[in-house]
Amino acid sequence: MKLEGLQSKSIGLVLSGGGVRGMAHIGLIQALNEYGISANIVSGSSVGALVGALYANGNSVADMLAFFKETPLFKYNFLTLVKSGFIDTDRYFEIFKGYFPEDSFEALEKELHVVATNLQKAEQRFFTEGELIRPLLASAALPPLFSPLELDRELYADGGIMNNFPLEPIKKKVDFIVGSNVSIVGDLQKKDLRNSLQLTSRVTALMIYAINQQKLDACDLMCAPEALEEIGVLDRKGIEKAYVIGYQEAKRILQKFLSKE
Q1: What is the residue-wise DSSP string for 43-60?
Q2: At what angle do helices 23-34 and 239-258 cross, to 10 degrees?
Q3: Which intervals of this chain are the motif GXSXG (predicted)?
Q4: DSSP-based three-state secondary structure for 164
Q5: Which pLDDT value is given to residue 76?
Q6: Does residue 175 belong to any structural domain of this protein?
């Protein structure tokens, strides 16, 4: 496809969950920017919801990286003994308000869909209108580290629990879908499965991949850098590395796609 043809299409961007590895989403956005490609609609889960919101808000790539570098993952006075979860997710509200002062989906420059998991009703819910910050916090509230958020008198947590790749809200709204999946399941050696933590992490990753595989295959262009597996989901030292990996992989797949006749 010629670049002009892609630029003229309505484009949807789907961003998966995956913790610090989600900085690769920002690398993809940088690559798209360099090609003059902009998404019309964004859908995200967990860290993908956060990146998606910043993108839909018109924040620059530099601002996006700064958000994740400057927002503390662990802060002593955010710890809680009165809520389920080690860290009180509500304490992040004021930090987010600095980036989203109007606290509204309607104030964003692009249409955004955010998925979170209703823990009480065992169902997923998409948010796309009304207040923005609390649904964002809920979508990224990974238990048991972060406490669930109360929305409409019910408890919500990480969107990736039930939908780590939220293609559904945009698949019939656009001509072309770009996906970014940072929940990687590459090959492992036996030495990488030597303890219970490694085994649990691998099993969880495989379950998430199996549930979402059909949706990943439905994208017109997919960025899923295998090198991200070297980066821990909560390893803040990997922020810049994950960004670079995502950028390089996005450039590679865009060049390959656009070179096809």
Answers
A1: EEETHHHHHHHHHHTT--
A2: 40
A3: 44-48
A4: coil
A5: 47
A6: yes
For 160, residues 6+ apart whose C-beta sits below 8 A from its C-beta are: 16, 17, 18, 45, 46, 142, 183, 208
Helix (H) or strand (E) holding 199: helix 196-217
In the numeric block, the tokens 């995956």 are attached to 18
Domain count, the chain: 1
**Residue 182, domain extent:** 3-256
Residue 259 phi, psi dihedral angles, 5° rounding = -85, -10
Residue 261: inside a domain: no
pLDDT in tens, 37-89: 999 999 999 999 999 999 999 999 999 999 999 887 655 455 555 466 678 88
237 found inside a domain: yes
Question: Residue 219: which CATH number?
Answer: 3.40.1090.10
Cα separation values, 235 from 13, 65, 71, 230, Å: 25, 15, 13, 10
> The whole model's pTM is what?
0.92
250: region left, alpha or beta (phi > 0 left; psi from -120 to 50 alpha): alpha
- pLDDT beneath 70: ranges in the chain: 73-85, 197-198, 200-201, 261
Residue 195 lies in a domain: yes
DSSP 57-122: TT--HHHHHHHHHHS-SS-GGGB-SSSSSSB-GGGGHHHHHTT-TT-BGGGSSSEEEEEEEETTTT
Residues 6+ apart with CB under 8 A from 88: 78, 79, 80, 147
Catalytic residues: 46, 158
| Selection from 52, 45, 68 nearest residue 158 by Cα | 45
